[in-house]
């Protein structure tokens, strides 16, 4: 059960919380200015155009809306499995598909994961070469969120693309946070995606929409994916509102990504000196990072409640066990427009409060 | 591919077409008046309350939002199959699950349908008694849309409920148009649903929302269904907007259902005398009926284009082959607020135009 977090005044991670009233007001403005009609089972000029725009932006033939990435990605794996007559796919154990989707690909499509690489770092081309079984698809994350937002280094990414091509492995990217990676790679989205067979990109997360994503690929892949979208129950009566909730702010968010990135660097430079807190990666590679703590997950949840109730500060949605030496838990910070609009002094004060809360727990 | 129907001035079936701007404006008003927050993976006071309200209204323990009925109903069948260790379910061949979902229940859950009754009428308790194989679940439609909106007669419905209970068959209703049936049965929704183990009800169709539905059942069923909702990729980041698009007009629509019903009766009494058109059922039982024609499906599609281009009238979204003697095709009329606000003379004129268009085709 996720926490209801409406009562706080101060948030840290992600973009500013808005109400349904504020959000519909923004969408209404966009809809009126652009004369947007409602679709009938996804058929609409507005949706077609936005799908095409995104596909063009990242260099794919077609894009197809899905209500969730969970649906889009298992369908992509199923389509590839049917195409290659091979149910195996390679994946990193920190990938969302493997770690957080309750084995949906097994339950619904009888696919089988082959874990690749090591748990605590992105894989390199050598890891891919070491896969012992024949796989239909290799899934790479751009970037690895669960590792603190670490992308595969460019050289390795290029080598993986080449290796997959030479070995008839379909290369799919979980690009839930692709938009966040341009500053790291210093490449266009098209260059980053060149050589991938398919990618899933999110319309909420960094973009700030209400729900949904695009699966991008070639025409035959998207044609098959459409059939499975219907079978999964993903073909909504009207998709327009969800897509519009992303479209109205899409360009602005992409423009701001480099600002979020710079702010993350600045926060690292000025706010990472509390000995109770360990930032990971040591220096943020994109506009997100993890904050590791020497308190347990349970203690961290109590801390969250304390900050919510006593200070009106919402610290994080999720907290996980830490894999770092001497640390026990961590939470994620996504630098979005919340932190962009805070001064470094304000941000520092929040970390200081957290450090102060933790300190006495460690000396007990 | 569904037609894009934005260019017409006159519609017949369903509720009035609105733009995204108009619709978000109405939702915004509702959201502001009710102080509605956005959810985080479905967790919100607003969603919880609306789900509870609907569950209470129709007499179930719990209700769970799904983005589509296709997802909700195959999941219900899967949950029941696991519970009873039996993959067979009984269904009428005109039910949506069997007729229009591309065998999703087979592809994704390896379930097996056992067809019950006769193709062109709702089934009676005798049909259910004649099922030769053991089934986990019996699916009944309340009402049968594809038969022209015909509900199972009350006595038979009660007998089917009793029979299923006595024979340990879980009884599930496709209640996509349950809201339309109160005037026919002259019963409350609770009375209609009493004795069902589960039901799916729509939030768009008669209600006019943008997408989605509720699956209602007991706590253990809904608990299992939640797991499968996530696996299917049905757990949207934010569901609020879709649910609000229905909630803001829900009470009004339920109140108007009896007016739609009366209007359907009136249209039948005053507009069904064109010999080129055959209304089915002979007298509408709910606020919908079929109009059968002696022209083919292909001719009917040409007619739709003609009316769209020459008269700005959108006749129908879909047209199907007719099962009636001497007829070749039919389309559906759902009496919603479009026809409610038209005079009988206006409605008659439209049928007259259709009859006039068809007449010369028949004498060729």
TrEMBL record, chains A, B:
Superkingdom, taxonomy of origin: Bacteria
InterPro entries: ArAA_b-elim_lyase/Thr_aldolase, PyrdxlP-dep_Trfase, PyrdxlP-dep_Trfase_major, PyrdxlP-dep_Trfase_small
Stretches assigned to the Aromatic amino acid beta-eliminating lyase/threonine aldolase domain: 40-292
Pfam families assigned to the protein according to its UniProt record, in alphabetical order: Beta_elim_lyase
Keyword Amino-acid biosynthesis on entry: no
Gene3D superfamilies reported in the protein's UniProt record: Aspartate Aminotransferase, domain 1, Type I PLP-dependent aspartate aminotransferase-like (Major domain)
Chain segments annotated as transmembrane: none
Protein name per the record: Aromatic amino acid beta-eliminating lyase/threonine aldolase domain-containing protein
